[in-house]
Each structure stands twice: as structure tokens, then as C-alpha cells.
Design a protein that fits this description.
This protein is mainly alpha-helical. It is 71% helix and 3% strand. Strand 1 and strand 2 form a beta hairpin.
Length: 231
């Protein structure tokens, strides 16, 4: 049997359940260890993780919900393809949700929240220096996640978390080659400075929107390069 190309924890705990299986599989798809179109077999994954099939099937079901895996009963369960239209649509929704998160979260942002954002940006810069796209994505999520958490809107949080995996698939590939760039670090610093100086919410909303628009350009570049290389 050929081992599934996924990164498993060094020590798999007996308590490992669907959430842990979900995290392992989501990371594998985002990194490209599980490539678009590749078959996902619950039996092989369960054996690899030392689990029964039940939590693995639950994890796969949730990955279908967020669009990383597609399934047709009796036909296939496979990693979804990278689709430009879907990626751009996901980013458009994420930009709208971010605006809401910033507007609702800013009134509750205190020194503790600012320090959390500063730490996340330091971690992002460190990941850039180490050419670690995965840790950069995690740090970027934590940076923006401070205001999302302060918005205290469970539906907003759930929707953002549902969209992130699709965007991460593209950004991981772009950040893997663009980590030398300081643009995102500088954007984070700009947002932090605006928060420290007490700028009005709409100014900060616009600054955050510019960041997502830049990411939209990266997504466009990714597909342009992919289309060029396939011709």
C-alpha cells in the first residue's frame, strides 16, 4: 500500500478525533501534498493516523463543506481543483466579512489586543525570514483574527474560517516564492499604527481592504502563471 502524502503528527494521541484529522488533511491540501484531483481514501488515512474510519469520514465531510474536497457517492472522493472563478468569489466574500469584522472589533480593541497583533506580525516577519509559507499564513490569520475575535460575532467567525482554506491554497503557493517581499509586514505595521493613533474606523477599514485587494492581485498572478505554463 502506498502511503498517503500527508504530514502526520510525530505522536498521534489516542484522543485524536475528527478535528485533528481535519487539520492534518486541510494542511496537506493547502501545502499541495494532496494535489488537485487526487483521490482521498478514508481507509488509508485512518490507518495512517491510527484512527477508526468514523472521525476520518467526519473530517472529510467537513472538508467537502469548505470546498477542499469534492465527493460523489459511488464514484469518487478527491481534492478539488484550483478554480480561478471560485477563488476570486471566495476572496470577494472574505473582503466583505473583513470589513464587518474591523468595524465591529475596533471599538473593543485595547492595548492587549494591539500587543497580540504586534506579536503576530513579529511571527509573520520571522516566518518570512525562514521562508516558511505555512507559518506565515498562520501568523497572518492570527493578526487579522484579533479583530475578528473582538467583533464577538460567532456567525462572522464561522464564515471567515470556512473561506480561509480556499484562499490559503493559493496564497501558500504564492507566499512560497514571494516571502522575501515586505509588503504584508508593512501593511500590518500600517494597520497597527492607525490603531495606535486612534484613527476612525472607516480609515482602518479602507486600509485593511487595500491589503485584501493586493492579495486578489496575487491570486490573479497565480492563475495567469498557471495558464501560461500549461500552454
Amino acid at each position: 500500500m502506498i502511503a498517503m502524502p500527508i504530514r502526520t503528527p510525530k505522536v498521534v494521541q489516542r484522543s485524536l478525533m475528527w478535528q485533528d484529522a481535519y487539520n492534518v488533511l486541510a494542511e496537506a491540501v493547502v501545502r499541495g501534498d494532496l494535489a488537485p484531483g487526487e483521490q482521498v481514501r478514508d481507509g488509508e488515512i485512518a490507518e495512517r493516523l491510527g484512527l477508526s474510519r468514523t472521525p476520518v469520514r467526519e473530517a472529510i465531510s467537513r472538508l467537502v463543506d469548505v470546498g477542499l474536497i469534492e465527493a460523489k457517492v459511488g464514484a469518487y472522493t478527491r481534492v478539488t481543483s484550483l478554480n480561478r472563478k471560485d477563488a476570486e468569489a471566495s476572496l470577494a466574500v472574505l473582503m466583505s466579512l473583513d470589513r464587518l469584522a474591523v468595524r465591529e472589533g475596533l471599538p473593543r480593541l485595547d492595548e492587549r489586543g494591539v500587543r497580540a497583533m504586534e506579536k503576530a506580525n513579529r511571527d509573520f516577519a520571522r516566518a518570512v525570514g525562514q521562508d516558511s509559507a505555512w507559518r506565515a499564513l498562520e501568523a497572518d490569520d492570527r493578526f487579522h483574527g484579533v479583530l475578528v475575535a473582538l467583533a464577538d460575532n460567532p456567525l462572522l467567525t464561522r464564515l471567515i474560517n470556512q473561506i480561509h482554506p480556499q484562499i490559503h491554497r493559493i496564497l501558500f503557493r504564492k507566499f512560497s516564492t514571494l516571502l522575501g517581499s515586505q509588503e504584508t509586514i508593512e501593511h500590518h505595521e500600517q494597520l497597527l499604527e492607525l490603531c495606535r493613533t486612534g484613527e476612525d474606523a472607516e480609515t482602518i477599514v479602507r486600509a485593511s481592504a487595500e491589503h485584501w485587494e493586493h492579495l486578489g492581485g496575487l491570486i490573479g498572478e497565480f492563475f495567469d502563471e498557471s495558464e501560461t505554463s500549461s500552454t
